[in-house]
Amino acid sequence: MSRETISQSISIVHPISLSHGKNAEVWDTSGKRYIDFVGGIGVLNLGHCHPGVVEAIREQATRLTHYAFNAAPHAPYIELMDRLTAFMPVDYPVSGMLTNSGAEAAENALKIVRGATGRTAVVAFDGAFHGRTLATLNLNGKVAPYKQKVGVLPGPVYHLPYPSADNGVTCGEALKAMDRLFSVEIDVADVACFIIEPVQGEGGFLALDSEFAQALRRFCDENTILLIADEIQSGFGRTGNRFAFSRLGIEPDLILLGKSIAGGVPLGAVVGRKALMDNLPKGGLGGTYSGNPIACAAALATLDAMTDEHLHAWGSQQEEAIVSRYETWRAQGLTPYLGRLTGVGAMRGIELANADGSPATKQLAQLLSLARDAGLLLMPSGKARHIIRLLAPLTIEPAVLEEGLDILEACLKQLD
Prior knowledge:
By secondary structure, the protein is of the alpha/beta class. The protein has 12 helices and 15 strands. It has helices at about 40, 50-60, 75-85, 100-115, 135-140, 170-185, 210-220, 275, 295-305, 310-330, 360-375, 400-415, and strands at about 20, 25-30, 35, 95-100, 120-125, 155-160, 190-195, 225-230, 255, 270-275, 340-345, 345-350, 375, 380, 385-390. The strands form 3 sheets. The chain has a 7-stranded mixed sheet, with helices on both faces. A hairpin with a 5-residue loop joins strand 14 (about 380) and strand 15 (about 385-390).
């Protein structure tokens, strides 16, 4: 199959062509089966072709395939926003808007905070990833490959170290860097918002330090700065909770949603304090495809499946299996390249590192190939692409999860 018509600027992790999938398994066009630990990069928390999602899509497609909500409202959008705002674990009145993607949610959040504060500066974090659109590029805490060759980006944006037990950056170090930022770089009165991932995705599945999160929330309150939580990858049960910010003991002002919101159908959202969401003039928010009826129907089916009981059970099952296997590998000295286990709940990363602690990037590339040949799809992350991010569907059958971990174990043994 020719790929000459596809931009060569798109990077491909696995050079295969997929045909179909079911829950945590996919098959390529030659019929080869793979266990999927990528999940569409965090999109398929409910797995491939979840029956409830498929049926909702099929039923909605017979009724209304599209209408632009800002032209004439439709029932699926209204019902989803009612359900979605009720699903948010915060104590304040919530409203929101639907978007086509997580990046579009981030772009709209920037408009919302500018309108609410009259300020333009944003503080983001090292290792962050918030999208590939022009404004979100500048929020990302990594230059290559996202910011290369694109010139001056919308701003101003400033970056701070991301404090996590997973990367060795302490709360104190991050707060010291923040103090320097406002002493040397920018007046705190010019900052509209902080944007932060409760668990970094592209950054290597690093879990935010809870002490820092609470200090940041207090700082924002004291200085009339808004706090945005990017839950695009960590949300919808990935960590075992509805959203990862709950484990930090804080409530953000705005929350960015996407990826697993609609079982694989393109959809995103920005939700938060109603007064913020309503501050722009009529027509300031919206979009032609945002909140498409079929995507809304898929999201409603997704919420039906994501009860707290299910999320806790699914998250605990994966966490216990991954942690137990990792600890066994460490005790056995399975490979000299086995580094830290990062993340929380079912959002876990496995670092590959050399004896001196430097990233074992070469070995991770080797692992991707070995695992693919053996029937397991993995996804890299981290600044040096040296951390495997494990994103199997939350609904993965225990036997399939163990089979995937068996393949990973065998491949780790082969690293050289």
